[in-house]
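ok trying this again, last paste got cut off
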Amino acid sequence: MSPVHVVLAGGGSAGHVEPMMNTADALRRADPAVGISALGTAEGLESRLVPLRGYPLAIVPKVPLPRRPGADLVRVPGRLWKAVKAARAHLDAVDASVVVGFGGYVSVPAYVAARRRGTPIVVHEQNARAGIANRLGARWARTVAAAVDGSGLKGAHVIGIPLRRAISFLDRAAERPAARASFGLGAGPVLLVFGGSLGARRINTAVAQAAGALAAAGVQVLHVTGTARADEVRDELGADKPATHHLIDYVDGMDAAYAAADLALCRAGANTCAELAAVGLPAVYVPLPIGNGEQALNARPVVDAGGGLLVDDAALDAEWIRRHLVPLLQDPARLVAMGAKAAALGHRDADDALARLVLAAAR
């Protein structure tokens, strides 16, 4: 009998690619003989990130769905047919045993091709509200998994989001001294600020304008500006930047930053919420004010449980930080309690849980 071959489909953003690759690693640990490949677009981050993780990537044409009627909408059926054809060719070439979809542009042609071929489908939904692609795939899927309750996918196994092992096995307390030393941080409360790889202008500006107040309160700031925003933040801080305000353009591997911090100020992407809960780091979440509001929904469970705070993007400014963040950072007992409440909602084994579901569907 030929070994199982798993085809993973997802991409467009690191939010889809990272869980996909973490699942691939878990599959390889569970069965070293399993075949693994991925479907993705040439334009998405998967074209770079998947090969870097050591897995083959087959390219399918990107099929964006226009939000408004027009010429692009008329071209969707033809583009989808080409993408399905490319996906089907790869499934045939590797004799796919199962297709695992994580949402995004790539998943729809993968689901259609798998259904036509009679290949089992497994769907993983990372957001609090399922997207169009996974709502479609779930109709045909043998198994559906979700990060949280209430995704809208009937019968979903709630397992969390597959995380990197460096995150899921992180012991923040044990790693804190070394992590702080690596960033040049000393004793006292540490606020970790980040907004994704590109940064978040609203968060960056508010923190830069509150730098003096944070320093005066004895708060150290580990400020990950994002590569696209670094110069803006440096200009905002100016020559009087406090010595306790540490600027970094980008951090490759957030585990050390999480270990160093007492509180995070960040967006509320699904992966971010999952990672912070898993490691028990309390956070102030500032949802991105676009889309269908899924970032606020992502943060809502941990906020409702007392493991974080939620603030609207438009409400975040230097004064809000002075009034709310500074007192919180000066209350270590409250931070510890919030961290414990966040950790109670965290999932550290979602990668292995999803791998088991995938192999069961394949066999």
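PB: full thing came through this time. The first strand starts at residue 5 and ends at 9.
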